[in-house]
Every structure is written in C-alpha cells, then in structure tokens.
From TrEMBL:
Protein name per its UniProtKB record: Uncharacterized protein
Molecular-function GO term, any one: aminoacyl-tRNA ligase activity
Biological process annotations from GO: translation
Record-annotated PH0730-like N-terminal domain positions: 12-70
One Gene Ontology cellular component annotation held by this UniProt entry: cytoplasm
Keywords for this protein: ATP-binding, Ligase, Nucleotide-binding, Protein biosynthesis
Length: 200
C-alpha cells in the first residue's frame, strides 16, 4: 500500500510548545502555519487537540489560551521562556530563550541537539553577574558579539544561573524550534501530561 507522508498531520512537541506561547494573544490558523512552517492540516489537528484538552478558545479573531491554558503556560514559563528574535548570525535569523535551573549539562551535547533539530548553529551561555558568558572559559558574550549580548539582555530578565540558548537557521521556524528543542531536552520531565499527550 502506498501513501503520501504529507497526507498525515505531523507536528512535534516543539511545535506544541511554540503554539502555546503564540496563543497568549488571539492568532489565526494561517499565522500559526506560517510561523512554524507547518501544513494547515497539522495546525488544524493540533488546535483541535488543544480545544479537546480544554486549553484554548476559538473566536473570529483567532485561537487563544483560556484561563486553564494560561495557567499551564505559566507553569511551563517557570522552567523556560518564550523564544525571542535576537537578530541575525552568519546571515541567518537567530532566536534565543532562557532556561531556569538547567541542572547539569554539557554545552557541546546541547549544541548537537540544536543542530540535529535543523539549526545551522547554536550557542549555549550561562548568566553570571547579569552577563551571558561561555561556560567553557568564562568569556562574556559581550567581548566577541556585543550587539547580540545587548539584544539578549534586552529581550530577557536574566538571572544568575540561567542558561541562554541562542540558535540560528536558514528558516525562522527551524531556529525557533531548535531553541525549544534544547529547552525540552533539559526540561521535558516537567512538561504537563496534557502537552506530552498531544504528540502521541
């Protein structure tokens, strides 16, 4: 039996988490599809599952989180932030997020995770005295990339001990999702069951 892979709605845990952050404000299906580079069928399925879970409301203005959805997102946000655009690196769109209390990690493994998830490259930084630094040698990001350091500091309320993940890729969607992928590789166990069940 032959079948087309594209005929099946497919999305990842990273897509589901990205959608939750997007739906803090009413967002149309087309906007979700374009931002995440997902087929409309996949977006429809994902939104329908969120509706069944009782996490979103749908109006003519689009879909948005309801009270329960917002509570769920607040719980996730205690562990990692929403991605933010922080300019370009090597001519590619770059995004960043922060991870609270990351625990033990190896920078090179986290960079590999990002690249496995379609990033062109990634930087893993730790916040010390309010500055993002390279954990391997304690070098501040501001020494080598002052503009990026300022953008990161402007985009987030950095706290000492936070991890800052910066990823870049040819497509914005891949840069965003690879950053979420790194956060999830550190924090998947704290994700609520409702979210994990979306991709089963």
């Amino acid at each position: 039996m032959s079948w087309k892979r594209g005929a099946y709605p497919e999305f990842t845990l990273e897509d589901a988490v990205a959608v939750l952050f997007m739906l803090q404000n009413p967002t149309g299906r087309k906007a979700v599809s374009e931002a995440l580079d997902l087929g409309e069928g996949s977006v429809r399925t994902l939104l329908r599952k969120l509706l069944w879970q009782g996490l979103i409301r749908s109006t003519q203005r689009g879909h948005s989180l309801n009270g329960r959805g917002m509570e769920l997102l607040e719980g996730i946000s205690r562990h990692f932030s929403e991605v933010r655009r922080v300019g370009e690196i090597e001519g590619h769109p770059a995004f960043a997020l922060t991870v609270r209390e990351p625990g033990k990690f190896k920078s090179i493994e986290l960079r590999d995770e990002a690249i496995r998830f379609f990033a062109k490259g990634a930087m893993i930084l730790v916040v010390r005295n309010g500055e993002p630094i390279f954990p391997e040698d304690g070098r501040p990001l501001s020494e080598t990339m002052p503009e990026l350091a300022e953008k990161v500091k402007g985009a987030f309320r950095l706290e000492d001990g936070d991890l800052v993940v910066v990823t870049w890729a040819e497509k914005e969607a891949d840069a965003m999702k690879s950053a979420y992928h790194v956060a999830l590789s550190l924090k998947e166990e704290v994700l609520p069951e409702e979210i994990k069940s979306l991709v089963r």
